[in-house]
Amino acid sequence: MSSLPSSAIPSTPPAISLHNLRVSYGEREILHGVTFDVQQGETLVILGGSGSGKSTLLRTLVGLERPTSGEIWIKGKNLATVSDDELDALRRHMGMSFQGGALFGSMTVGENVALPLREHTKLEDSTIEIMLRLKLDQVGLSGYEDYVPSQLSGGMKKRAAVARALAMDPEILFFDEPSAGLDPIIAAGIDQLILELKEAFKMTIIVVTHELASAFLIADRMVLINKGDVIAIGTTEEMRNSTHPRVRQFLDRIAEPAVSQELDYLQMLTEERHGSRR
Amino acid sequence: MELTVQIGQSVLNALAYLGSLATLSTRAAYYTVVAPFRGRPIRMQRAISQAMQCGVRALPILSLITFFIGLILALQAAYELKRFGAMNFVASAVAISMSRELGPLITAIVVIGRSGSAFAAEIGTMKVTEELDALETMAINPVHFLVTPKFIAMAIMLPCLTTWANAMGVLGGMVFGVSNAGFTALGYLHATADALFLRDIVSGLIKSFMFGITITAVGCQEGLSTGAGAEQVGRSTTSAVVISIFLVIAVDLIFTALFYFLGGK
Fold first, then answer.
1. Looking at residue A49, what is its pLDDT?
2. Which residues touch A180 (CB under 8 Å, ≥6 apart)?
3. Is B143 touching A (CB cutoff 8 A)?
4. Which of A215, A207, A244, A212 is nearest to A4 (CA)?
5. Which of A56, A60, B111, B191 is the most buried (most CB within 10 A)?
6. Does B50 touch chain A if contact means CB atoms closer than 8 Å?
7. d(CA A206, CA A222)
8. pLDDT tens, A120-130?
9. How confident is the model at residue A246 (pLDDT cuts 50, 70, 90)?
10. What percent of chain A has pLDDT above 70?
11. pTM recorded for the entire structure
C-alpha cells in the first residue's frame, strides 16, 4: 500500500483511527489491512469502484460488520473489541444515511425521524415534536412529517434519511452513496445539503461514493480504495495532482484495458513469455 | 458412504436450524421477562398492534373455517355412530376432537398463512431495504424492536384464537346435531360440556401456545436470514410457511404423545 502524505498535521486527536483493518466475508477477505485517520470536523470521501470494498469499510465503521483483525478507534473505544452495549453507546454519537434511505415503510416521515429520540431519550412528546420540525427544516422537508416514505421521491427519501441520521445530534455522520439513483439536479441538492451540514455543525462527515464530481465538491480529503487496499489518501488537490496510475485511471475514468483484438492478445502472450524469461 | 455423509449433513443442518429458532425464542423471552427490569421496557404499543393484526383480524376467516370443520367432524362421526345407533355421541366426538386436536391445529394453520408468512415478508423486506441495518445503527436492537412484540402477540393470541375456534367448531357440530341427530340446542351444549374435561381444553391451549412460539420463531428467523434481492423475500415467505406447517405438526406430535403418556389417558 502506498499512500500520499497528508499535508496537515492535526493538533486534536482523530475522530476515527483505523489501523491495519481486515474484514472478511467467510473465506473471502474484502479489506486487506486498511490504515488511515479521519480528523475531527473534516469531510472524508471514500472513493472506489464497485466491489472495491468501500461499502464494506463503511459498514465496518458503523459496526454492522466485525473486523477479522485490526483496530478502529472511535471516542477512545476500539470498535473491533467493544461489547454490544458499548457499541450501542457509541452509535448514539453516529448517524448513518443509507443508500436507499432505509426509512421504515410502516411509519410516517415524522415517526421515522422521531424514532431515535423516542427510543433513546426521555423527552416529552412536545419537545420531540419541536426537534422533529427542526430536523425536517434542516433538510428542507418542512411539512412532510405526515407523509409515508412511499409518497416521497428518491431525493426526498434521502433528505428524510439524513434528518433521521441527524436526530440524535451525532458527532460523526456517514453517507452511503448519497447521490446514487438521483438525477443530477437532485443529486446536487444533496451535495449542497452535506456542505450546509458541514458548515452549520462542524461535524465529521464520511461519505462513500463513486461520483467524482460530487466527491471533489464536498471532500476535504479523499481515500481511494481498490480491491480492498487503500491506494491513495490526501486532499482533493493532492488527489488531482496524483501520478499514481490507479488514481489517474479512476479520476480520468479510463476503462480497464480489454483484450479485444487478436493481435493484442498475441502481443500480450509474447510479452508474458518475455517477462517470464527475463 | 456418500449417502451417510449426506444424511449426516442434513441432520446437522436441521439441528443448526432448530438451534437458531431456539436462540431467537430465548432472546425474545429475555426481552419479555428479564429486560423490562433492566430499563428496557416491552414495546406494548407494538405488541398490541401485532395482536390486533394476527389475532383479532384473523377472527372472521378462522370462524368460518372452524365452523365448517365442526360441521364436517359431526358428519364424519355420525357416519360411523349411526350404525351403532349412538348419534347422541356426536356432540362429544366433535367437542373432544376440536378441543384436543383440530381447534389448535386449524388455528395454527390459518395463522401460519396469515401471520407467519407476513412476518417473514415484513422482516425480509426490511432486511433487503437495509431497514434492519438502519435499526442497528440507531442502536435499536431488531430482536427487541421487531421480533419480541410478535412473540408476545402470538403467545397470547394463539390460545385465545384456539378457544374461539373450539367454540365455533362446537357451533358447527351443533348445526348438524340439532338438524339431524335429534338434539335441542341446549341439549347439545349440555352434552358438549359433559364430554369435556378441563385437561382436554388445557392440553389444546398448551399446544396452541407452543404453536404460536413456533410460528413466530420460524417466520422471524426466515425474515432475518433473507438474502439480498427482492426474490429472496418470496423464497423466505414460502419456506416460512412450509417449515412452520411441518414444525407445528412435529410439535403437535411431541405434545400429544407427552400428554398421552404423562396424563395416563
1. 83
2. A99, A209, A211
3. no
4. A244
5. B111
6. no
7. 10
8. 888 899 999 99
9. confident
10. 88
11. 0.86
DSSP 8-state class, residue B38:
G
Domain that holds residue B13: 2-261
Closest B-chain CA to A58: B137
Task: Give the model's confidence band at B113: pLDDT under 50 very low, under 70 low, under 90 confident, else very high.
Answer: very high
Range with the poorest average pLDDT among A189-203, A253-267, B8-22: A253-267
- Nearest CA to CA, how far is B158 from chain A (Å)? 24
What is the DSSP code (8-state) at residue A98? B
With CA atoms as reference, report the closest residue to A225 among A5, A38, A25, A32: A32
- Report the chain A residue with the minimal C-alpha distance to residue B43: A119
Domain count, chain B: 1
CB atoms under 10 Å from CB of A159, counted, come to 25
Q: A105 — phi, psi (to 5°)?
A: -65, -25
pLDDT, tens only, B223-252 = 999 988 889 999 999 999 999 999 999 999
Range B213-240 burial, b when 16+ CB lie within 10 A, else e: bbbbbbbbbbbbbbeeeeebbeebbebb
Buried b / exposed e over A203-214, threshold 16 CB at 10 Å, is: bbbbbbbbbbeb
Which residue is listed with cell 497528508? A6
